[in-house]
Amino acid sequence: MAKILVTGGLGYIGSHTVVALINQGHEVCIIDDLSNSSLKVLDGLEKITGKKPDFCQLDLRDLEAVKIYFSNQTDIEGIVHFAASKAVGESVENPLLYYHNNLTGLINLLKCTAAKNFIFSSSCTVYGSPDDLPITEDAPIKPAMSPYGNTKQIGEEILKDVTLANPSLNVIALRYFNPIGAHHSALIGELPIGIPQNLVPFITQTAIGLRQELKVFGNDYPTVDGTCVRDYIHVMDLAEAHVIALQRLLNQTNEDKFEVFNVGTGAGSTVLEVIHAFESVSGLKLPFKFAPRREGDVIEIYAHTEKANKVLGWKASRTLDEALKSAWLWECHVRNIS
Ligand code: NAD
Ligand code: WQD
Question: Which CATH entry fits the domain spanning 3-181+233-263: 3.40.50.2300, 3.30.450.40, 3.40.1280.10, 3.40.50.720?
């Protein structure tokens, strides 16, 4: 069992991954600047795991602070790097914030750490609009559709180059599809600040009465019901993929120094299918109306998962219904409704 640093470990995917890492017996330490998370998450982590991970509030853009951190933490064997800004629309309005945060944070970590094993949060957004479905890892990387997407493409390129130059560094980039849901305890989950941009938190906030109705962006797409198709993956399945990928590096069973895996379920669902599944697991009628297409949305994308299934030995096991049910339980927990 190893000591693992999770950057952005109080955020949505990071916190669920901390649970999965502790469940696997790893010792976890967390860096987070709390720019998109709260200290309360530490309490949730302690309640679920019985352990309070070592936490350091630190902005990864601060090179001196990162240097000092690693000079005190010399026995970190692996890093799971989540810390980044992630709102696509905001990245269009404020590209420098995104290039600065997502790239400087990554570069500072790489400058300061001696850890040999590094997992990077990448995204299906690197593929842009796919030519073939399901999309494989060797599909062409097209020009990014947003500064955010570009930071993920550049992040992968930086890591590829650094692994070539650094004989001891090994990296796995995981390209997530659409993570949704929460830990079944409802003690941790997704907590968007302000109006949610993503579908599932908007659905749960509408169902709980915080939003009047959901706007379905576009119903004239060439899909089964006219709405866009995405590969929605339960966040705990995604969290477990990190543990398995990290173990591959710790065991030195990786075939290349820089590897990439899609992390999705392999199946697509339309927006209307998600709404209807949510209605069925919650027993509620969701108010929604059709609205114009959202700029920048790809019509349809879902993962080819054979590489992750065969090479990593990982497969998503939870259903869309389970994910939506857990998202709903979490929303009720956050709003104190039982
Ligand atoms: P999140 O915002 O919930 O978590 C990110 C965490 O990093 C937050 O707690 C934030 O406070 C912290 N952070 C941000 N900048 C920091 C900095 N400079 N120093 C220290 N901490 C910092 O986001 P998430 O949904 O958990 O996403 C985690 C990672 O996964 C991100 O890299 C994101 O780009 C990537 N990703 C997310 C999705 C998604 O749909 N949620 C999909 C694909 C990839
Ligand atoms: C899903 C579907 C919307 C909200 C984003 C990022 C991507 C990745 C995952 C980080 C789409 C529709 C949504 C609403 C709607 N993140 N929708 N009404 O756009 O697939 O991906 O998160 O890497 O980079 O772009 O996810 O949840 O925003 O949208 O109809 O109020 O739901 O049009 O078809 P998306 P999403």
Answer: 3.40.50.720
